[in-house]
Design brief:
The structure is a single chain. The chain is α/β, with parallel strands linked by helices. It has a single domain, classed as 4-Layer Sandwich (Metallo-beta-lactamase, Chain A), CATH 3.60.15.10. It is built from nine helices and 16 strands. The strands form three sheets. Strands 8-7-6-5-4-3-16 form a seven-stranded mixed beta sheet. The mean pLDDT is 92. Bound molecules: zinc ion (2 copies).
C-alpha cells in the first residue's frame, strides 16, 4: 500500500490567495496573449461538416438502456453519451460522468460552442443512476441544464461528487447530496459500503467567468473502486506525472475514460489537453485494462480535424503494441459490455 504521507510521491494542489494551482512542472496557465494569437492566427483544420458525412463517420445511435435496469453485470456496462459523458455500471452502482445533454457548452444557449452531433438521449431516457462524477467547472463538463434535469429526476437518491470549490454552486443549482473532495481524499459511497470513491489529480484549470473566476475551484480525475471492478475517469487534463501516481495507488483499472480530443494547436493546448499519444501514455500509466476515448467528436472546441483524435488514437495504440480493443472509441449512444479479468 502506498504511503500517502510522502508528499513528494503524491501531488497536492497548491492553494494561494483563494486560487488553486497545479503543482506540476508541465503546467502553464493559458494566457490572454496566446488566446488572442490562437483565435486570430492559428489555422483551423476542424473542417466544415455536412450532415451526410457526419452521419456516415460519427453516427448517433439511440441507446437502449433496458440492460442497465437489470441487475449489475458480471463485468461492466458502459455507454458513451457524447463528449465526456459516460454511463458506467458495475458492482451494483450506476455512474454518470460530466453529464452534458445541452445544445451548447456555454453560459447561454444562444451563443457558444454548439454540438455538431446531437445528444443520443436526454435525462428523461436514462436508467436509475446512483452517482455523478464532475471533473471541473468548465461549461462542457459542468452543464447547468443537465444538472438541474438530473436532480429533478433523481432527487436526493443521487450523490454528486465534485472537486473542492464547486459544492456551493451545485447547491445553488438545487443539488441536495453533494460531496466536495480534494486530491487523494476517499469516501465510501452511501448505501454501497463496498464502493469507494477517490478524488485524484490531473493537470487542468477552472473558470466559469472567462478569465475573472480562474481557478477558484479545483479540477480532478476520479476513481471508483468496487469489490470486483475499478473505474477511472480522467476528466479534462494535460499530461503530467500524476498518472503514474494514480496507477501506483489505485490501479490496475478494469475500465478508464480518457480524453483524446481538443488538443490543437499544441503550443496553446498542450498543458491543459492531452493528444492521443499522451492519452495512450495515461492508459499505460494508470494501468487500465481497457480505455474509452472521450472529449471528442461532439463540440468543435479546438483546431484539429474532427476525426483526427480517433485516427491518431488507433495509430498510437498500434505503435505501442497494444491490442486494438485495449483503447477504443464508441459511437454516440453505443453500449458495450466489458468482461475482463477481475481486477482487484
Ligand atoms: Zn476544461
Ligand atoms: Zn473540456
Amino acid at each position: 500500500m502506498a504511503d500517502l504521507t510522502k508528499k513528494e510521491e503524491y501531488a497536492e494542489p497548491i492553494f494561494v490567495n483563494g486560487r488553486f494551482e497545479n503543482p506540476f512542472p508541465t503546467w502553464k496557465q493559458p494566457g490572454l496573449f496566446n488566446l488572442c494569437k490562437y483565435f486570430l492566427f492559428d489555422s483551423n483544420e476542424s473542417a466544415i461538416l455536412s450532415q451526410e458525412s457526419l452521419d456516415a463517420t460519427l453516427p448517433v445511435l439511440q441507446p437502449d438502456f433496458k440492460d442497465f435496469q437489470s441487475s449489475s453485470p458480471d463485468g461492466m456496462r458502459v455507454a458513451w453519451l457524447g463528449h465526456s459523458s459516460l454511463l458506467v455500471q458495475f458492482d451494483g452502482v450506476t455512474i454518470l460522468t460530466d453529464p452534458i445533454f445541452s445544445k451548447r457548452c456555454s453560459p447561454f444557449q444562444f451563443v457558444g460552442p454548439k454540438r455538431f452531433r446531437d445528444a443520443p438521449c436526454q435525462v428523461s431516457d436514462l436508467p436509475p443512476i446512483d452517482l455523478v462524477l464532475i471533473s471541473h467547472n468548465h461549461y462542457d463538463h459542468m452543464d447547468y441544464h443537465s444538472i438541474v434535469d438530473l436532480q429533478k429526476k433523481y432527487g436526493s437518491r443521487l450523490t454528486w461528487f465534485v472537486p473542492i470549490g464547486d459544492k456551493r454552486w451545485m447547491e445553488e443549482s438545487g443539488c441536495t447530496n453533494v460531496r466536495e473532495m480534494t486530491w487523494w481524499q476517499e469516501e465510501t459511497f452511501d448505501n454501497h459500503e463496498n464502493i469507494k470513491v477517490a478524488c485524484v489529480p490531473c493537470q487542468h484549470w477552472s473558470s466559469r467567468k472567462a478569465y475573472l473566476g480562474v481557478n477558484q475551484s479545483l479540477w480532478s480525475s476520479w476513481c471508483v473502486i468496487g469489490p470486483t471492478q475499478r473505474f477511472y475517469f480522467a476528466g479534462d487534463t494535460g499530461y503530467c506525472e500524476a498518472f503514474k501516481q494514480i496507477g501506483r495507488r489505485y490501479g490496475p483499472f478494469s475500465l478508464a475514460g480518457i480524453p483524446i480530443g481538443a488538443y490543437k494547436p499544441r503550443w496553446f493546448k498542450r498543458a491543459q489537453h492531452v493528444d492521443p499519444e499522451e492519452s495512450v501514455q495515461i492508459h499505460m500509466d494508470v494501468r487500465s485494462e481497457k480505455s474509452i476515448g472521450i472529449h471528442w467528436g461532439t463540440f468543435r472546441l479546438t483546431h484539429e480535424h474532427y476525426l483526427e483524435p480517433r485516427t491518431k488514437l488507433k495509430e498510437e495504440v498500434e505503435k505501442q503494441n497494444l491490442q486494438p480493443e485495449d483503447f477504443i472509441t464508441l459511437n454516440h449512444g453505443e453500449i458495450q459490455f466489458i468482461t475482463n479479468s477481475k481486477t482487484k
